[in-house]
Amino acid sequence: MSENQAVYPVATLCRLLGVSPSGYYAWTKRQPSHRAQADMMLLGRIQETHTASRGTYGAPRIHVELASQGVHVGRKRVARLMSAAGLAGVSRRKFVRTTSKDGGRQAPDLVDRNFAADRPDLLWVADITHIPTWAGFLYLAVVLDAYSRRIVGWSMATTLATKLVLDALNMALLTRRPNGVVHHSDQGSQYTSIEFGQRCREAGVRPSMGSVGDAYDNAMCESFFATLECELLDRSRFKTQAEARMAVFEFIEGFYNPRRRHSSIGYLSPVDYERRRAGEPDAHQPAVVLAALKHKPCGRPQAAVLDRRCARRPHLRAGRDGRMAPPGAEPKNGSKQEDKIPSDQVP
Fold first, then answer.
1. Angle at Cα 258 formed by Cα 253 and Cα 259, nearest 5°?
2. What share of the chain is helix, strand, coil (3-state, %, to 5)?
3. Whole-angstrom distance, CA of residue 188 vs CA of residue 128
4. Dist. CA 198–CA 169, nearest whole Å
5. Which backbone phi and psi does 172 adopt, to 5 degrees?
6. Beta strands across the sheet bearing 150-157
7. Is 70 helix (H, G, I), strand (E, B) or coil?
8. C-alpha angle with apex 289: 286 to 293, nearest 5 degrees?
9. d(Cα 195, Cα 5) in Å, to the nearest integer?
10. What is the end-to-end Cα distance of the chain in Å, rounded?
11. Distance from C-alpha of 160 to C-alpha of 167, rounded to nearest angstrom
12. In this predicted model, what pLDDT tens digit does every residue of 307-344 receive, in sequence order?
């Protein structure tokens, strides 16, 4: 009515819309309600949070971020205001398989799609992706800790040489110093190379590999790449490879590890999750089923030689909390085994 009152009389417009002229004039002079004013203030906080997340957060993560700042509102209210303001998180595109390899498996699958870990540096997952630039592809290799979803090692190069994955592994070993960690990857030629296998044996790393052409066997690392693509690569165009390197570095070290909230770890960032859980003796999560090391006939353990029979073994659980029991262990609430006594001495 305000836009057309210079062309048509207000009384005519009110009659067509079924309202009274006095009601219309009263509405124009009326102040916004307290709810509307509160929504405007809340929308300002939502826009700030959305901008701080690089425009990637949707309503669930923004709701958690506001709660951490002391703003306690309903998630549906946040979603309603974001929809009205045209704010939305980014969505992932369809997965496209880019690598395939023929031949036998170089290491067994010690994970069997069970990516849970009850402590840091128990299970690492690794993979390679490509970053398009106007100057050609740039390749990124990462090593991710399954406990906190933290990127503990990464490297970039212009070729798919074995050095790419070795640099990522060496960075993870230098910053974390693990003991007997499982390194899970696909069966790419970089991970099945002799050089990479020797480095794993030297560092005491236990290699594990999924099946050929099955992204679900390395789903956790594929999930990170999907996040990288939808929150950075799909929203940016890099003219040079140096520009792409700086953007990926800032995303991993400046946003993903210290700040990005993950729904799978209670909407905490990987760094905050590790800090909060550092003082807890029990994380109450099922541990990854790991294979045992074989031993040489002389009794000396052979480093990084894997037991193939442990691959894809059903996960056995014991006790009320579902923890894994060591082989030969007695049930938690069961009766103890009696000592082996000859039958003639049994009363």
1. 115
2. 40, 15, 50
3. 9
4. 12
5. -65, -40
6. 150-157, 138-145, 123-131, 182-185, 206-209
7. coil
8. 145
9. 80
10. 103
11. 12
12. 444 444 444 444 444 444 444 545 444 444 444 444 45
Could you give the C-alpha distances from 132 to 2, 56, 158, 167, 235, in angstroms and in order? Answer: 51, 20, 11, 21, 12
Asked if residues 185 and 207 have their Cβ atoms less than 8 Å apart, the reply is yes
Which structure tokens are listed for 187? 């069966």
Look-up of token digits 């709701």: 63
177's tokens: 């110093």
161-190: buried (b, 16+ CB within 10 Å) or exposed (e) per residue? Answer: ebbbbbbbbbbbbeebebeebbbbbbbbeb
Please, which residues have CB within 8 angstroms of residue 74's CB and are 6 or more apart in sequence?
A: none
Dig out the tokens for 126 from the structure: 């690794």
- Please answer whether residues 107 and 212 qualify as being in contact, where contact means their C-beta atoms are separated by less than 8 angstroms: no
Integer Cα distance of 87 and 105 in angstroms:
46
**pTM beyond 0.90, yes or no:** no
pLDDT tens, residue by residue, 67-78? 888 889 898 999
**Residue pointed to by tokens 């826009």:** 47
Could you give the count of Cα atoms lying within 13 Å of 285 in the half-sphere of its Cβ?
19
Q: Among all chains, which residue has been given the structure tokens 């990462």? A: 142
